[in-house]
């Protein structure tokens, strides 16, 4: 049986995901077979495994840190919010339905067998499982049916490391308050605490650390600095959206839809020296970008209506009419067509007019396409013609089919020829018309050949030569970021204490 350690936080966005990823990499470097686990994830960033199942991106990041292939067992329940009060519920990689929050809350404990089955699949293969909690274990209104924090820790008998965020202030109150709100048996599970996102001289913290240990009777296992590592994060409180523009040759604007999904599609562009990539949510911030991207959405119809009401649709249409490129991915691709039809009420029902930039109609169906794909761009026309023939590797997650009538054939070209890695089927996907492009493939820019072709085409359009481009291997870049994270964990966390916690598990011990 695998041993475990669980990372819980005093609140959301304290850095649980990154700390868990850092521990995964450190343990892997130390020769330990390690895997991540999170029983329930709420996120609009998701991923498709090699066997066509859907899981949250945070555990994909942690699996990459552990140098193993992501498996759906690492995240058996994924909640993808479709509105403020409801989510699509995905269990072991497959859609179980769309539920209002109260209905899911009532049914949560019914998913315990699925959670334990997934956990035991990892238990059979690995030496250590690094478990991530969600939000805070001290949400007293949610504790009765908890399956992701102390409820899960009890189910799998895991020791807990509690993390607080000092960057937002009040870290001592966070940690002491959390510990005090827990029941005695829950407090006993917390074997250590970590202060995260610290900027400054740790010596200044030492009096506070001594008082914290005295109040909680729990050792502080480390003070993690604020880490500048470019690693995929959760979507709900991502700092990516608030990053300031950098000086660069190219300006790429991604429309920040209210229900934006899989914005990890653009991480490869964000880290390029030639590119300033920004997320735009107001018409007044649109500017004069070199490329506009419409990203994926968990509710395409509602986000399209928001785009219209916000004035951003008009900005995008004028951008396209000026001859500048627009690129839509998944939900953004659907918005570029002429109509979106929802006869079965998958989203909001009915039919709405789309942007009319591609001669296509999207019809929603209850069946979700989930698959990994490889392939190549076909003959690409317009400004992005340099992308012709570039190879791609990505995945699809969508519930709509986009249809072109025969009369439209002369008015557009299919864009990418792909091979479905789950079914083996070969097919064409996407469309292009003049300088408007779209397809369903997430991760389409990740391959170096595609990113270079896209950036090179945009630079050429602005009159820059080949010397302006600085090509990079994105996968090597990501590995460097994981190493930065792992090094920070080694330098700032008492790994000897962490190994003691893992080895002893939930055994009682006296502090000091």
UniProtKB/TrEMBL annotation:
<comment type="pathway">
    <text>Cofactor biosynthesis; adenosylcobalamin biosynthesis.</text>
</comment>
<dbReference type="GO" id="GO:0015420">
    <property type="term" value="F:ABC-type vitamin B12 transporter activity"/>
</dbReference>
<dbReference type="InterPro" id="IPR011698">
    <property type="entry name" value="GATase_3"/>
</dbReference>
<keyword id="KW-0315">Glutamine amidotransferase</keyword>
<dbReference type="InterPro" id="IPR029062">
    <property type="entry name" value="Class_I_gatase-like"/>
</dbReference>
<feature type="active site">
    <location>
        <position position="442"/>
    </location>
</feature>
<feature type="domain" description="CobB/CobQ-like glutamine amidotransferase">
    <location>
        <begin position="251"/>
        <end position="449"/>
    </location>
</feature>
<protein>
    <recommendedName>
        <fullName>Cobyric acid synthase</fullName>
    </recommendedName>
</protein>
<feature type="domain" description="CobQ/CobB/MinD/ParA nucleotide binding">
    <location>
        <begin position="5"/>
        <end position="226"/>
    </location>
</feature>
<comment type="similarity">
    <text>Belongs to the CobB/CobQ family. CobQ subfamily.</text>
</comment>
<dbReference type="InterPro" id="IPR004459">
    <property type="entry name" value="CobQ_synth"/>
</dbReference>
<dbReference type="Pfam" id="PF07685">
    <property type="entry name" value="GATase_3"/>
</dbReference>
<feature type="active site" description="Nucleophile">
    <location>
        <position position="330"/>
    </location>
</feature>
<dbReference type="InterPro" id="IPR027417">
    <property type="entry name" value="P-loop_NTPase"/>
</dbReference>
<dbReference type="GO" id="GO:0009236">
    <property type="term" value="P:cobalamin biosynthetic process"/>
</dbReference>
<dbReference type="Pfam" id="PF01656">
    <property type="entry name" value="CbiA"/>
</dbReference>
<dbReference type="InterPro" id="IPR033949">
    <property type="entry name" value="CobQ_GATase1"/>
</dbReference>
<keyword id="KW-0169">Cobalamin biosynthesis</keyword>
<dbReference type="GO" id="GO:0003824">
    <property type="term" value="F:catalytic activity"/>
</dbReference>
<dbReference type="InterPro" id="IPR047045">
    <property type="entry name" value="CobQ_N"/>
</dbReference>
<comment type="function">
    <text>Catalyzes amidations at positions B, D, E, and G on adenosylcobyrinic A,C-diamide. NH(2) groups are provided by glutamine, and one molecule of ATP is hydrogenolyzed for each amidation.</text>
</comment>
<dbReference type="InterPro" id="IPR002586">
    <property type="entry name" value="CobQ/CobB/MinD/ParA_Nub-bd_dom"/>
</dbReference>
